[in-house]
Structures are given as C-alpha cells and as structure tokens.
Specification:
Structural class: mainly alpha
Number of helices: 1
Order of helices and strands: H
Helix content: 10-25%
Number of strands: 0
Shape: globular
Oligomer: single chain
Distance between the termini: 19 Å
Radius of gyration: 13 Å
Mean pLDDT: 85
Strand content: under 5%
Low-confidence stretches: none
Largest sheet: none
C-alpha cells in the first residue's frame, strides 16, 4: 500500500456530522497510550498528523 495524500477533513461527534464518502473506512480502537496514533503516523509517513 502506498499512501499518496492525507488530509484532515473534519471532527464530528454525531453521526449526522460525519462526512459522506464512498471509500472504505478503517477504525483503530484500544486503550490509552498503546501507540494507535504512532501506528497511524508511521503508516502515513507523517510525524504529527494524528
């Protein structure tokens, strides 16, 4: 997998605020301080996106 572009779209707390896309979605879940953000940043090759 080669990730070419990454952008923050929006922050939402209610389903009615979610952006509508026809693309697959991936969720990362887990306890605090286990490295979820670090994993995502590594996958997208950015230091502070998440």
């Amino acid at each position: 997998m080669i990730i070419k572009t990454v952008e923050f779209v929006k922050s939402a707390v209610k389903p009615s605020q979610y952006p509508e896309y026809d693309l697959p979605e991936i969720a990362f879940a887990g306890r605090s301080n286990v490295g979820k953000s670090s994993l995502i940043n590594t996958l997208i090759q950015r230091k502070n996106m998440v």
